[in-house]
Amino acid sequence: MTLYLTQDEVKEVLDMKSTFEAVEGGFREMGNENIEMPPRVYLHFEKGVLIAMPAYMPGLDAAGTKIVTVHPGNKKDHGLPAVIARIILNSPENGVPLAIMDGTYITALRTGAAGATGIKYLSREDSEVVGVCGTGVQGKSQVMGLMEVRPNVKKVKVFDIIPAAMEAFAKEMSEMFPGPEFVTAASAQEAAEGSDIVITCTPSPKAFIDGAWLKKGCHVSAIGADTGAKRELMTSVITKCNKRVVDFIPQAFVVGDFKVPKEEGVITEDDIYAEMGEIVAGKKAGRESPDEITMFKATGLAIQDVGTASKVYELAKAKGVGITLA
Ligand SMILES: NC(=O)c1ccc[n+]([C@@H]2O[C@H](COP(=O)([O-])OP(=O)(O)OC[C@H]3O[C@@H](n4cnc5c(N)ncnc54)[C@H](O)[C@@H]3O)[C@@H](O)[C@H]2O)c1
Predict the structure, then answer these.
(1) Span from the CA of 149 to the centroid of ligand 1 (angstroms)
(2) Is residue 105 within 8 Å of 14, Cβ to Cβ?
(3) Is 66 assigned a catalytic role?
(4) How many A from CA of 312 to the centre of ligand 1?
(5) Which helix (H) or strand (E) holds 243?
(6) Cα angle for residues 228, 295, 245 (degrees, 5° grid)
(7) CATH architecture of the domain with range 2-107+303-325
(8) Is the shortest distance between the CB of 53 and ligand 1 below 6 Å?
(9) Residue 317 in this model has a pLDDT that exceeds 90
(10) Which residue from 80, 51, 116 is spatially nearest to 308, judged by alpha carbons?
(11) Is 90 exceeded by the pLDDT of residue 326?
(12) Ligand 1 within 6 A of 248 CB?
């Protein structure tokens, strides 16, 4: 009655195209105020944290909860990943748990799709040069999302504080996407300067992108800072942007990129142009001129997990993937 899917089985059925459709669809539902998404619930352990993220989207007939734990010492202490996630999908009709599936790969891909939604609606369609800072799991997902919506970009400059990581990343991405040229950058500044799209996806505690480096017409996709202790964008980026778009206003002001400028008295909630859902739903315009500088700050939403998991459930059933639990 309940379909169980391992991470390998999720990977077998899910690609970026399907993930993007699910995430963009979720933003549309949110913009149309047709979702239920209570605040996340936290349990604090001695060595980590458990976060429960429920969501219901009546328009997509999708409901469920992601349960994710973050134990930074796991690798050293137990040989386990620091982040472990499962998603439980429930039938809105009768409550039956339709599926239990790995949520780690879904989290990675849905975040790439969230960044891609910002790129689709806010970056220039003729964007050619992209700078990516951070070449870990999110670096890859963000490039996959980028290539879904801007397949004709010509050059991607990648930067990471670990040189070997960025070199391996540039090679892997060149093999995965033969179109653009992937090159390593000597610094975050070199990655950002002259780029039409700047993507940041690091766990940095200290802001490292300066507004002075952003060219006219550029779009900033800020992904990495998802807690108050992380920050990628200097206040100068926030003030230089003509349009500041976030996924969810209450969450945006908790993370470093907006929390610090707010504490400095530089911005308030009134300086946010829109939530992404309002743009996807057509209630507010996305990019309106080639010169404006835009930014999208993604913090991560339960509707993205549940929407993507619902897509995985459909695809897995159609392909006969997974095992059914009694
Ligand atoms: N917004 C969201 O919805 C969302 C979702 C998932 C993950 N995240 C966040 O994204 C960040 C990255 O996650 P990940 O899974 O890719 O981590 P990861 O550990 O796989 O990769 C992070 C990479 O960033 C590099 N890095 C660290 N500081 C840097 C700096 N100042 N400049 C350049 N590179 C730097 C590291 O060397 C590493 O290669 C984390 O903070 C994570 O919590 C956000």
Answers:
(1) 22
(2) yes
(3) yes
(4) 25
(5) strand 243-246
(6) 75
(7) 2-Layer Sandwich (3.30)
(8) no
(9) yes
(10) 116
(11) no
(12) no
Q: Is 200 in the pocket of ligand 1 (CB under 6 A)?
A: no
List the structure tokens of 227.
């807690």
Residue pLDDT, tens place only, 21-54: 999 999 999 999 999 999 999 999 999 999 999 9
Q: Is 133 in the pocket of ligand 1 (CB under 6 A)?
A: yes
- CATH for 124-299, options being 2.40.50.140, 3.40.50.720, 2.40.160.20, 3.30.43.10: 3.40.50.720
69 vs 83: CA distance, rounded Å:
6
Beta strands 97-102 and 2-5, pairing class: parallel
Residue with CA nearest ligand 1 atom 39: 136
pLDDT of residue 189: 98
- Segments in 123-156 forming alpha helices (H): 137-149
By alpha-carbon position, which residue is closest to atom 25 of ligand 1?
134
For 20-78, the DSSP string reads: HHHHHHHHHHHHTT--B-PPPEEEE-SS-EEEEEEEEEGGGTEEEEEEEEE-TTHHHHH
In the chain, domain spans = 2-107+303-325, 124-299
- Name the catalytic one among 66, 120, 240, 243: 66
Task: Locate the ligand 1 atom nearest the alpha carbon of residue 133 and give its number.
Answer: 33
Mutation pick for ligand 1 pocket among 202, 230, 234 (CB with most ligand atoms within 8 Å): 202
Query: Does residue 51's CB lie within 6 angstroms of at least one atom of ligand 1?
Result: no
Token pair listed for 321: 């993937």
- Of 84, 132, 138, the one to substitute when testing ligand 1's pocket (max ligand atoms within 8 A of C-beta) is 138
Cα 223 to ligand 1 centre (Å): 8
| Ligand 1 contact via 131 beta carbon (within 6 Å) | no
Q: Is the pLDDT of residue 261 over 90?
A: yes
pTM over 0.70: yes
Q: What is the pLDDT of residues 69-127, one digit of tens each?
A: 999 999 999 999 888 999 999 999 999 999 999 999 999 999 999 999 999 999 999 99
